[in-house]
């Protein structure tokens, strides 16, 4: 297996690395590529920052190891290689009455990536995190493969779930799919007038899938206005699929200037009638709305963008409101801002979720935005919350102190698995997750 020196980036395109990359197509080639040393792995690089970056090192691209190995309809357990994309599973199994139990906001995320970040979805308040539905996984090391299960090897499983790939190369997984009555989504959309109403609606929602788009430019009495979407899987008439588009070039900075974003957000808010509405959508349109626009990250221009995403406890909602006020006054927000209610479900020592509210806002890569996000990270920490490593590109080691109380437990397991630190990525190094050594 050959190594190719390549410059690459996370999805936000603000952070870059140059590394030697190998792309094995079979497990034999994967083990040959690893030789006698551990090497970090990556998938489709949909983490926004440097979670997949290994500047000056070597990394294995797992995207060609993308085979669906087997499915048991009696149990709903699907076995796949780590490079399989979540959207591919949804497309293949929804017509058969099954869906991944948890799906992130992009169908391009690989199963290996979903495990490494223990991703959450629009149903976290009911279903918990991705790895809570993983029955077992296989980890590759230079000495061979090991099966890891929540019951048989709980510490190693918890260190791998959300563990940023630091326990070994995730080769495959067995995951339990969820029953669904059909391959369309019945979605109820409602305008939400302000912050207080949004939280009340999120708290009161009994829908299986719930997500809020929030106008992060609105201020004053309109602060926190947005659109609440509540969805259920269904069957019946399949809506016409919209043709995918592509962003062919890096957009000029004016494309997401403050006046343009404000105008867009106002129009987007009004697209839902004041009385609300119920619509039928293809499943991928609901779960992966931005996947219809290939290379949408180029809308932020050549410099890329950053995302701030945090979760705070239910009792810290006022602190989250204060963060949104700062964002709205700054004029730096893009149209991409999401508010969700989270449950307590999490599978790993470094899993992001906690019982509370999560806010995610994209901002262009400017000095003003970087400064604001760093301040917001500190506010989230001081409110008893935490940031999401899958989206982070700006936090410092001192910022995350106390955010993840089980960090020391994770370090113990990772130290046993990779004592020489060969799996360390740029994110792990930047945040000193494995210590200062």
UniProtKB/TrEMBL annotation:
Keyword Flavoprotein on entry: yes
Pfam family, one: FAD_binding_4
Gene3D superfamilies in alphabetical order: 3.30.465.10
Database matches in InterPro entries: FAD-bd_PCMH (IPR016166), FAD-bd_PCMH-like_sf (IPR036318), FAD-bd_PCMH_sub2 (IPR016169), FAD_lactone_oxidase-like (IPR010031), Oxid_FAD_bind_N (IPR006094)
Residue ranges annotated for the FAD-binding PCMH-type domain, each copy included: 13-180
Tagged with keyword Acetylation: no
Keywords on record: FAD, Flavoprotein
Annotated GO MF terms: FAD binding; oxidoreductase activity, acting on the CH-OH group of donors, oxygen as acceptor
Listed name of the protein: Decaprenylphospho-beta-D-ribofuranose 2-oxidase
UniProt source species: Albidovulum inexpectatum
